[in-house]
Automatic annotation (TrEMBL), chains A, B:
<keyword id="KW-0238">DNA-binding</keyword>
<protein>
    <submittedName>
        <fullName>DNA-binding transcriptional regulator, MarR family</fullName>
    </submittedName>
</protein>
<dbReference type="Pfam" id="PF12802">
    <property type="entry name" value="MarR_2"/>
</dbReference>
<dbReference type="InterPro" id="IPR039422">
    <property type="entry name" value="MarR/SlyA-like"/>
</dbReference>
<dbReference type="InterPro" id="IPR036388">
    <property type="entry name" value="WH-like_DNA-bd_sf"/>
</dbReference>
<dbReference type="InterPro" id="IPR036390">
    <property type="entry name" value="WH_DNA-bd_sf"/>
</dbReference>
<feature type="domain" description="HTH marR-type">
    <location>
        <begin position="1"/>
        <end position="145"/>
    </location>
</feature>
<dbReference type="GO" id="GO:0003700">
    <property type="term" value="F:DNA-binding transcription factor activity"/>
</dbReference>
<dbReference type="GO" id="GO:0006950">
    <property type="term" value="P:response to stress"/>
</dbReference>
<dbReference type="InterPro" id="IPR000835">
    <property type="entry name" value="HTH_MarR-typ"/>
</dbReference>
<dbReference type="GO" id="GO:0003677">
    <property type="term" value="F:DNA binding"/>
</dbReference>
Amino acid sequence: MPRWLDERESRVWRAHLALHTELQAVLERRLLADSGLSLADYALLVPLSESPDGVVRARDLAASVGWERSRLSHHLTRMQRRGLIARETCPDDARGAMVRITPDGISAITAAAPTHVADIRRTFIDHLTPADLTALDDIYTRLRAALAEESEL
Amino acid sequence: MPRWLDERESRVWRAHLALHTELQAVLERRLLADSGLSLADYALLVPLSESPDGVVRARDLAASVGWERSRLSHHLTRMQRRGLIARETCPDDARGAMVRITPDGISAITAAAPTHVADIRRTFIDHLTPADLTALDDIYTRLRAALAEESEL
């Protein structure tokens, strides 16, 4: 038998799950209404729009959002149909698919960003002190490193 | 124009999103394989199994997982078909739907819990110090209170 979660452990774990669901609901409703982008679209367009040449290797895109490759591939197909991204072959590695943001993709995220960033500030960042940010930065980095190690086992 | 996220704010926000996705993938794959329950099924069965008479008001169930009522209702319909829960009318309030866990629902969560709790410990709780738990408890409570206030506006 495992050691059960104590009251605080259980409360923190459930709050972690519920907070994500609540944030997602509030942020996605507004983002969709404003720009037609889902949070998933937005999360993928950010690293693409920040890359100097607008191109990111598919595997790096998957890692940046924490998705498995099959989920990324299905989602990219839908974004490609909507004209937000294009797929290319990596010149250095025939097996390495690359993803390029299109001019329409750039327009979409440029239009969506101001309101979405303001929403992220109002619902998340504005409630965190500098000490909270330091704590979360440290905790999230540690948890993600442990998960990455587990996935490689 | 909003103030853009600085490097640390942006890193924490993206890590928050990615961590949830990564945890969800690892935990749900195992839970489904072991017990046939999704994380959503499990999250709803926990408060039901902990209630003294196995009955919880639908609106309290929705609040405990951070879901909107329509999402809860659709999900409960599927769980009802699988025999995990039953719906009842609240005796005190004709409009207040109640949800009851069935004996099959109790068996399902009882069988799933030991492995799932061990997985939550290994991927999440075991990497947190007591100070981390205190910090997360405080931060998550504050963020959820702010979101609840925003939803009421």
